[in-house]
Design a protein that fits this description.
- It is a single chain.
- By secondary structure, this protein is α/β, with parallel strands linked by helices.
- 40% of the residues lie in helices and 20% in strands.
- The strands form 7 sheets. Strands 1, 2, 3, 5, 13, 14 and 15 form a 7-stranded mixed beta sheet that branches. Strands 18-19-17-16-22-23 form a 6-stranded mixed beta sheet.
- Strand 22, helix 15 and strand 23 form a beta-alpha-beta unit.
- It starts with a strand and ends with a helix.
- The model has no long low-confidence stretch (mean pLDDT 96).
Length: 501
Amino acid sequence: MTYVLGIDLGTSSLKGILMDEVGNLITTKSAEYQIDTPKQGYSEQRPEYWIVALESVLTGLSVEISDFGQQLAGISFSGQMHSLVVLDDNNKPVYPAILWNDVRTSKQCQEITDRLGQRLLEITKNIALEGFTLPKILWLQENEPEVWLRVKKIMLPKDYLSLWLTGNIYTEFSDAAGTLLLDIEKKQWSEEITDAFNIDRGILPELIESTDRTGFVKAEIAERYKLTNEVKVFAGGADNAAAALGVGLINEEVGLISMGTSGVVSAYELKIADYKGKLHFFNHTVPGAYYSMGVTLAAGNSLNWYKETFGKGLSFNELLSEVYTVSPGSEGLLFTPYIVGERTPHFDSKIRGSFIGISAHHEQKHFSRAVLEGITFSLRDSKDIMEKTKNKKFKRLISVGGGAQNPDIMQMQADIFNSEMIRLTVEQGPGLGACMIAAFGCGLFDSLEAVTKAFVHYKEASFIPNLKNVARYEQIYQIWKQVYKNTSEISHQLVEFNDEG
């Protein structure tokens, strides 16, 4: 039996997923690491943390699985996007990795926007936000000039793991697309952008496809874990791109709804789409393809906040047990999930959440349903942008995350999105997409479509829209969309007042 290993380098932990050649899960291992916050707004990690975690996972696999060393054929990766890793001429880190959720770079984002204007969107298909890599590079240039002088190579986190395993430095298009340095359509580092900010293109890694091989596991590492085969290592993908592959998002007929801490709506794209910066747009792990992505900053986070604030001591099942008894629209109560600002479609860090329409007859069950509806309305914002831009409706939507485990939430999604909703039999996240890349790269399948059929499985029962609820939700959604424009100025004033205080 042949094994493939998917390594998912997350923000707080590294997870290894071991699967066999026909798509059966063998086992998983994980290891956690810390996030360093030396100052307010800073979010950093030392790349050594990731190596220690990977060593722990490999050790665990080699101990638990007796034939791991004999049967492992390939390894690939998924990894947190945007985070900046900088190395010296000995390929050693010269500064902690600045993570995607670090927000120290507002000044640099404005500088990028002022200098490049519309050209940034034309080249990268994205606007400048604190999470992206380019603002972090500019921050390092401006604030740590002595460190910058020592930088001989810029990397992304998962590619640092590949370097450790193989000794080779590459990145692939799905992760490079999140740097604001890639010409997404031409699939090359942008001369215009690198020249504008005095970045030597020689310090950027060579670009390859997600399914391309970066090398083989080095002899000393192979010996340590008793790997008897010449284990191939493949480039892999950014976490969202790998996650999209891992749920079967490989054609334009289906979309992905993910409700984790944040909420994500993703769509497969065969050609460049002009979303005018309202959505993120990146290269996919599928060679030659792209994916669009809208983000609700506080999806599951809104539900967690609501539970901890108003349902302390209750389980989620108890908190949501009566939502099905409340009619669509929560009897006139609306919630906007802007508790940490919002990304799509507003890109507004100062907007704040709200309950609108509170009446004396509202009980906790109404508030619970309103929170769920508000999160789903916010996700619909992204879905509608995708469908209107492409003039094409999704045939079905794949739902993953916490919401996919609750039938009331699934039916609510079907009614608000007016779409058939399907679920995976087992969710493994981005690491599954990494496994699929390794399986294809090793030649176990002749196409990513064939890998998808073997590795991705859906539950037979789906959720079909209730047409009566669809009609009602359509009216409520149009009212809900007015809340942002009518509360944004008030929110901004409150944020500024609180900051001054």
